[in-house]
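sry for the spam today, last one i promise. C-alpha cells for design, 265 residues
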C-alpha cells in the first residue's frame, strides 16, 4: 500500500516566561491505495479554509486524480476520476486571486474547473512536450517573471518560451516569444530535449528584474522593458538593438556584450 503522510502545524499558547510560541503538529494519514508513483499539488479549489490536495497516481493500467479537502478536523476525498490520456503535466497557478489547476497538453494549456472537474480550453500554443508519460508530473510553468507578485505563464517550446504575463485584474497579455531553445542530447535513434532554466535578476540596475538563460559559458539576457517583457520587433521599433546582451566570463573577468568589467566599481 502507498500512503501519504501529512504534518500540519498549529501554533499553541506562547510560553509565559520567554514569550516564545511553540508549535504542535497533528499527523494526518491519507491512504492512496496501491500505486507506482504520486504527484501532489495544492491550492484552494473547493472554497474551504485550507488548501486542497490534488493527488495524481498511476499504476500499470490507469492514471487517476483524487482531490482531498480539509474540514478543520479530517481530510476527505471529494473527487476521484481518471486522468485524460492526453494530459502531460500539471501545475497550480494563482490567477486573479484564485488558485487554478493547470493541465498542460500537446497544443497548449487548459485549466480544470473545480465545479465540474472537467478541462476548460484556455491558452493555445505548441509546447515541446508531445507525448503523455505513464505518470502525471508537475511542470513549473507558473512563474512571477516581472517581479509584480503575480503568476505569469512560461511555456517551453522548441524555439524557446511562449510567455503570458498577468495583469492586476487577472487577465493575461498577448503572448511573447522568448528565443531560448532547449538543450539537446542525441543518442542512437533518439534525442532528448530539456528546457533552459529561467534566471531572474536586475542586469542593468534599473530596479526591474530581467530574464537570463544559461547558454554554454555565458548567460543570454532579456532586459525588462518598463515592467513588461517586449518582443524583439518592439525593441527594434523603439530604436534599441534587438540582439540580446550576453553576460559571460573570459579569463576570470566578468563581461557584458564584449565589454570587460575589470577595474569597475
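last one done:
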Amino acid at each position: 500500500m502507498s500512503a501519504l503522510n501529512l504534518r500540519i502545524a498549529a501554533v499553541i499558547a506562547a510560553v509565559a516566561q520567554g514569550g516564545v510560541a511553540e508549535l504542535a503538529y497533528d499527523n494526518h494519514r491519507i491512504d492512496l491505495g496501491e500505486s507506482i508513483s504520486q504527484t501532489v499539488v495544492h491550492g484552494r479549489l473547493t472554497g474551504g479554509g485550507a488548501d486542497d490536495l490534488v493527488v495524481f497516481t498511476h499504476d500499470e493500467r490507469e492514471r487517476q486524480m483524487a482531490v482531498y479537502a480539509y474540514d478543520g478536523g479530517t481530510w476527505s476525498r471529494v473527487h476521484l476520476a481518471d486522468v485524460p490520456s492526453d494530459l502531460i503535466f500539471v501545475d497550480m497557478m494563482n490567477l486573479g486571486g484564485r488558485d487554478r489547476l493547470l493541465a498542460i497538453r500537446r497544443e497548449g494549456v487548459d485549466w480544470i474547473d473545480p465545479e465540474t472537474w472537467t478541462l476548460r480550453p484556455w491558452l493555445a500554443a505548441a509546447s515541446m512536450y508531445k507525448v503523455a508519460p505513464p505518470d502525471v508530473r508537475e511542470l513549473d510553468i507558473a512563474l512571477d517573471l516581472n517581479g509584480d507578485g503575480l503568476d505569469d505563464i512560461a511555456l517551453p517550446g522548441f524555439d524557446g518560451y511562449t510567455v503570458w504575463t498577468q495583469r492586476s485584474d487577472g487577465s493575461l497579455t498577448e503572448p511573447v516569444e522568448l528565443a531560448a531553445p532547449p538543450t539537446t542530447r542525441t543518442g542512437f535513434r533518439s534525442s532528448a530535449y530539456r528546457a533552459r532554466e529561467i534566471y531572474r535578476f536586475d542586469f542593468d540596475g534599473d530596479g526591474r528584474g530581467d530574464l537570463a538563460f544559461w547558454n554554454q559559458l555565458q548567460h543570454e539576457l532579456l532586459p525588462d522593458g518598463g515592467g513588461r517583457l517586449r518582443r524583439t520587433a518592439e525593441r527594434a521599433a523603439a530604436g534599441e538593438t534587438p540582439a540580446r546582451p550576453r553576460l559571460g566570463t573570459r579569463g576570470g573577468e566578468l563581461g557584458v556584450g564584449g565589454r570587460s568589467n575589470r577595474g569597475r566599481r
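Residues 10-16, 230-237, 241-265 have pLDDT under 50 and may be disordered. ok im logging off now
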